[in-house]
Specification:
The chain is an alpha+beta fold. Helices cover 34% and strands 31% of the residues. It has 5 helices and 6 strands; from the N terminus they run αβααβββββαα. The chain has helices at 4-15, 45-63, 65-72, 140-147, 158-169; strands at 25-31, 75-85, 94-104, 109-117, 120-133, 136-138. Strands 1, 2, 3, 4, 5 and 6 form a 6-stranded antiparallel beta sheet that branches. The longest helix is centred in the N-terminal third of the chain and has 19 residues, at 45-63.
Length: 176
Amino acid sequence: MYPFIRMAKELLLARRLPDLPLSGVHVSRHICWPWDLDPWVELNNGRTLTLYDLGRVPLGRRVGFHRALAAQGWGMAVAGNTTRYRRRVRAFDRITMHSRCIGWDARFFYIEQSMWLGGECASHMVVRSAVTSTAGIVPPARMLAAMGQAADSPPLPDWVERWIAAEAARPWPPAR
């Protein structure tokens, strides 16, 4: 089940924090609960992606995405991600999550997120996120205009550019 109560808590906490610039880092703290575990008694890889929502959605609130989305009647959707898992997260471990927007292109925003156990990175992810309307994908430039922000993206890291290129070369739909 989706962690609605945890999300409500994170959004309440984010309301009390100052707004962030578009490239600002939202830091949040979480606990790996028993219901987040897989059969090997560690944080489930799918649940990891869900827990990343607990950092990404409050980040959106703090940078002003939510105001613009609500004003325009738009939504946001994950359009892809790449995740690297490096350290086990076990029951009752306390993790610190860092979330930030690293840039955008003509169609998507790119959000970088990481989970930390003490001084070690447990996992790292980049999410490609689309602003959506009933007419389809809303270009980031239009979203940024609705937010009163400049439309120029900071340069995306080379490895993110290569991931974008690899995704563009990937066949769709996949073979059956």
